[in-house]
Structure formats: C-alpha cells, structure tokens
Amino acid sequence: MITEFYSSLDRQAKALLDGEDDLIAAMANFSALINDALDDLNWVGFYLLKNKQLVLGPFQGKVACTRIPLGKGVCGTAASEGTTQRIADVHQFDGHIACDAASNSEIVIPIMRDHEVVAVLDIDSPSLARFAETDQVGLEKLVNSFEKALFAQTTTNLS
C-alpha cells in the first residue's frame, strides 16, 4: 500500500514531468525532488544502460562511480535482473561496489521502456536498513510515473 507521503510525492513528480520530453532534464529534476523530499540520504541518481554497462547520469550527491558492469554491485544486479534491489547493509552484499564509503543501505529500481531495462534509479543512505517496504512500494510507484511520463512519448532520446 502506498502511503500518503508517497502519494503526495507522486503527484509532485507527475506535475514536474508533465510535458517534459528530455530524459536528462527529467532525470535531473526527478533526482532533486527525491533528494529534497526524503530524509537520511547521501546520494540519489540515475545510471543509464549503454553498451551493456551502466553509465552515470544525473544525480544529487558526492562524486560517483562513472561506469558499472551489468551484474556487478547493487545497481548492476538490479539492471541485469530487472528487479528492485533493497539492501539493508550494502557491506553484506556480495560484490558491492563502494562508490561512497559513507553509504550503508541502498535501494535500486530499474527504469523500463518497452519491457526492457534502460536505466536504474539508485538511492543511498548512510544509515543501515534505511529503506522499508513502504519506501520500496512508494518509490516503485514514482518510477512507474516517471516511465509513463517520459516513455509514452516516442520522441524521448536515450542516447
């Protein structure tokens, strides 16, 4: 069940994305919206799938890993499996890539277009077990709204 907090955030995201057809601009504002609305985060951003690897996209936070191989780390696993990864303690995740040593928990949600992963939304926290199931449900709803807003228009360029 989606909470009122995430319902409100979803309405804000839809308004923010309404009429926007530039993927980079949408990702930049979307990551800023989440970074501003959620507490206890140290990184929010996107990685775009290009040539069988994830490449850094718009984000809020410290300097990040530029490229992540598919299947590696939390982001690469989310992209290769096409499933959300909600990790309570990233240091216990086999193959975790430590772009920021301050990150202790993470949630990564695939961004889909035509049933294919095209990017991931990565959110990190310095706290252990920061992301609950209610966060996952709410954030997946936000991502669904993002996908509908951007990919309903055939002109959106992913390169």
UniProtKB/TrEMBL annotation:
Domain GAF: 22-159
GO CC list: cytosol
A GO molecular-function descriptor: L-methionine-(R)-S-oxide reductase activity
Pfam family, one: GAF_2
Homology family: Belongs to the free Met sulfoxide reductase family.
Protein name: Putative GAF sensor protein
